[in-house]
Amino acid sequence: MHDQDSTVDYAALKEKIREAGQQLGFAAIGVARAEPGDAVAGLRAWLAEGCHGAMDYMARHAELRARPDLLQPGTVTVISAAVDYLPHDKIADQPEQAAISRYAQGRDYHKVVRSRLQKLADTVAEVAGPFGYRAFSDSAPVMEVEFARQAGLGWRGKHTLLLSRQGSWRFLGEIYTDLPLPPDAPIEDHCGSCTACLQACPTQAIVAPYKVDARRCISYLTIELDGAIPEEFRPLIGNRIYGCDDCQLCCPWNRFAQLGDREFAPRHRLDEASLLELFAWTEQQFNDRLAGNPIRRIGHERWLRNIAVALGNAPASPEIRQALQARAAQASEMVREHIAWALRRQDQESVGAN
């Protein structure tokens, strides 16, 4: 616990933290009070409507989100940090190609961001002496977009992600701390009357400005959902096998985004691989090749489920039909059901093409 020392110049300390953050490769650092305010009521209403789907942990940990001091006792301040990750500007626009959310094509951001935050905390301790803190990167119930907004790192876009004049291709991380640093001022919302993200969403998951129904969102369906993907959404998923970037790709502010940190450069050709190539991976290959990548946490079964759906949406071909049939022999019941759906789609495609 940090003893509040009247001789410490907390404003100067904040600037030192910002400088140290820059040297560690953070794109921006800001400070907010550990009070999520009105955002808590918004979260509770969203949960009450069931918009979180099967993400039970969202409801279970709502109180921890609302009260940072319950997660880390003594917390009065949130240091909010952003890391740019845009790996390239290629788009997987061929239906036989696997579309993987850009954030997941390289190293696991949880580890990269958290280890940098740890280094930042070590630097603070060198300057200010021992202090109470805990670092997070999408790894605990933290209202990170709200704190980043309060800390002046950007505003909440209509797609609910943090948006800034440098775009939205950014990871966020936080340090909860007992240091009474002076907070930064929030910046204005610059979405104006634009509704590009609402119109671009393939499943219409952005049900109103600033409101996403996770149950319709392709990121939720391909990553968080562990059972069958509802049939109504399968044709709309297209070739997206892990996450979806459409609401970011259409955003005018992302024209100003810079290429991000080399840590997140694509591995194993995840930016250009074909669906058939990835569908052929054994469980061992999946685990080995995706070690240190966020995709690995969904496991091989969901990976096959997602790719089966994308193959069903691809133009009919004998190679696809063969791959689906071969995989069905040793697949789980859940994956077999998605393969059967994909084969029916392939049949419809080939009938339509004749």
How would you describe this protein?
- With 354 residues, this protein is an alpha+beta fold.
- It folds into 2 domains: 10-87 and 102-177, no CATH class; 196-346, no CATH class.
- Helices cover 41% and strands 11% of the residues.
- The chain has 16 helices and 10 strands.
- The protein has a 4-stranded antiparallel beta sheet, sandwiched between helices. Strands 3-10 form a two-stranded parallel sheet.
- A hairpin with a 5-residue loop joins strand 5 (155-156) and strand 6.
- Helix 1 (10-23) packs antiparallel against helix 6 and helix 14 runs parallel beside helix 16 (333-353).
Total count of strands: 10
Described by the principal axes of the CA atoms, the overall outline is elongated
Q: Approximately how much helix is present in the residues? A: 40-55%
Which sheet architecture does the biggest sheet show?
4 strands, antiparallel
Return the average pLDDT rounded to an integer. Answer: 95
| Stretches with pLDDT under 50, minimum 5 residues | none
Query: How many separate structural domains?
Result: 2
Widest sheet, order of strands: 1-2-7-4
- Specify the number of helices: 16
Secondary-structure element series: HEHHHHEEHEHEEEHEEHHEHHHHHH
- CA-based gyration radius: 22 Å
Instruction: Report the structural category.
Output: alpha+beta
Query: How far from one another are the termini?
Result: 73 Å
Beta-strand portion reads 5-15%
